[in-house]
């Protein structure tokens, strides 16, 4: 029981990490693009 919940949390953490890192990367690209225009 404890192992399955750990695996679920591990998978959820990986998904959240992937989402946040991709959003952060997009934000960085937008930031660099806006600074280059100025």
Structural category is mainly alpha
Beta percentage is: under 5%
| Oligomeric organization of the protein chains | single chain
Fraction of helical residues? over 70%
Task: Report low-confidence residues grouped into runs of 5 or more.
Answer: none
For the largest beta-sheet, the strand count, sense and barrel status come to: none
Shape: rod-shaped
**Cα radius of gyration in angstroms:** 17 Å
**Domain count:** 1
The total strand number stands at 0
Mean pLDDT over all positions? 88
> Could you tell me how far the N terminus lies from the C terminus, measured between alpha carbons in angstroms?
56 Å
The SSE string, one letter per element, is H
Number of helices: 1
Would you kindly provide a written description of the structure presented here, covering whatever features stand out?
The chain has 38 residues and is mainly α. It has one domain. Helix content is 95%, strand content 0%.
Give a short summary of the structure.
With 38 residues, the protein is mainly α. It is rod-shaped and about 55 Å long. 95% of the residues lie in helices and 0% in strands.
List keywords for this structure.
38 residues, mainly alpha, single chain
How does the SSE layout of this entry go?
Layout: H1 2-37
